[in-house]
Amino acid sequence: MTQINQKTAPKVSHSVSQNCGDCPIRHRAVCARCETDELARLDEIKYYRKFEAGQTVVWSGDAMDFVGSVVSGIATLTQTMEDGRTQMVGLLLPSDFVGRPGRDGAAYDVVATTDLVMCCFRKKPFENMMITTPHIAQRLLEMTLDELDAAREWMLVLGRKTAREKIASLLAIIARRDATLHKRGTGGPLEFDLPLTREAMADYLGLTLETVSRQINALKRDGVIVLEGKRHFAIPDLGRLLEEAGDDADGGMLS
Questions:
Q1: How far apart are CA 84 and CA 103, in angstroms?
Q2: Domain count, the chain
Q3: What is the pTM of this model?
């Protein structure tokens, strides 16, 4: 992954306005179980930020005065070694939580892969709300445990799966998340716009760009996926894609 050498200040978008009741990630976010009065309290400490593709949200080691959720777009978590080499260690998809209450600094570089909108909460007031509103803390714990499960599954993807299985696994993750966010079932055909370039997929999966393109074309040729342009994917049968990923229909990650 190309490393950005100069730190740039995030752009605060004053045009982004969301009502909690209309929020597209509300049913999956940290505030999913909040009542009206609790949403009103969160509204007092929240603000929205918009980042352009390629822009750094936060650098590893920097102090974070906010936590929040990805509303739209996708970001990457990247770790840089002492010799300057970087490794993408995670993806942040809509409804994923950014930041850790009780921790002053960021553990990873967070970079917007696409244009990104985040719903941010001022950190100290949010930490106080976790104490006074237990189900916020419970929901965050559930999300953290889901993230841990996903990380363990991803170790299998990177360590043991073939190139074809890696590509199929990543497409299955994004297809299922997209279906969940839009409250669609997974029993029929699924369609989504892939938020990652093939270069980013190669970085994340530890493959070459040529291998990614070759495997996507092979899955298309075999009828596992339907590709319109470079980014719009259709999955005729999710079960078949999961088979190609080496998973069963009840498995998968980041669902």
A1: 25
A2: 2
A3: 0.77
Q: Which helix (H) or strand (E) holds 48?
A: strand 46-51
Domain boundary among 142, 177, 204: 142
- What's the confidence (pLDDT) of residue 200? 85
User: In 3D, which of 25, 27, 97 has the Cα closest to residue 57?
Assistant: 97
| Mean pLDDT on 117-142 | 93
Q: Which domain holds residue 74?
A: 20-142
Per-residue pLDDT tens for 28-38? 889 888 888 88
Other CB atoms closer than 10 Å to residue 207's CB: what's the count?
Answer: 19
Domain end residue (candidates: 114, 142, 170): 142
Which tokens belong to 223?
A: 């009828």
Distance CA 136, CA 122 (A): 15
φ/ψ of 150, rounded to 5, equals -65, -40
Residue 202 corresponds to which tokens in the numbers above? Answer: 């190669």
Q: Are 25 and 181 in contact (CB under 8 A)?
A: yes
